[in-house]
Hints:
Elements: E1 2-11, E2 14-24, E3 29-33, H1 40-48, E4 55-60, E5 63-64, H2 69-73, E6 76-79, H3 91-101, H4 106-120, H5 135-147, E7 153-157, H6 165-180, E8 184-188, H7 192-198, E9 201-206, E10 209-214, H8 216-223, H9 230-239, H10 252-257, H11 264-274, H12 305-311
Amino acid sequence: MIHFHNVTRSYGRKVAVADLSLSIGPGELFALLGPNGAGKTTTIKMLVGLLRPDSGTVRVCGYDVAQSPREAARLIGYVPDQPFLYDKLTGREFLEFVGQMRGLPSTLLAERIADQVSKLELGTFLDELIETYSHGMRQRLVFAAAFLHQPPVLVIDEPLVGLDPRSSRLVKDLLRARTAAGASVLMSTHLLWLAEEIATRIGIVDQGRIKFLGTKDQLQQLLALPHTSLEQLFLELTEGNHQPADTQKHHCAAADAAPPGGTEGRAAELLGTAGQGEADCRGPYETPGDKPACKPDGDAPLPHRSAEAATGSSAPDH
């Protein structure tokens, strides 16, 4: 459902994302990890249409985000790390505005708002002005707006920033539920414990390149080191001093091939071939020409550009 094919994006001389190939399938919660400046936010902005790649293609359910931005926008729910809200609206008015811009019929919209109010426990402040909301209240409202049209693709940048333990639990449960329902979720986070807890697959990126793609167990196997925490594994990869020189490239093919119970010798054998040729990080879900069975909610028309801006949804910058 989400597909990056040989995607590169630079800012002047600095390469933020270098030749990224990656697929995230239905029912998968993918955690994108990396140090500051690694290319995570640039990757997300290209996915939702806020940036164009210099080369390569980004597809959502088969739609090229750069060539068909509005078609792709219908399929995406986006929660940015710094969302924009209209302070002079109440929470209810904001959700109604977003739902109308998404083309949801009034009866269905009322049902969806009631559902999100219940799941995210918005009822006590929904009819107050947004300017009175705490950070956590704002974050929950943004999640409700992103989920209103039940998108098949969710893009979440730092989902738990500023949330109290109860709000964090609500958000984690919602992400698990959407994944179980078949949505594709790309989550960027600095919280390594969150990736360990809820992600089905983990990608570690550094200096614009994927250093690992797979599960925590696969990462431990490939490094062949007796670590017990993702934090230490993350530091080993991003410091870049503990792997053979020819494995500083993508580990995707090796990670996918590594058996869960493989030996250290087998891991070393896999690493020895990981740097030869192009690593294939697409996964089993799609190839560049595929259009998976992935459609927007109901028969809603394409969203208006103002709705995309209000919810943080994808739209290309010209």
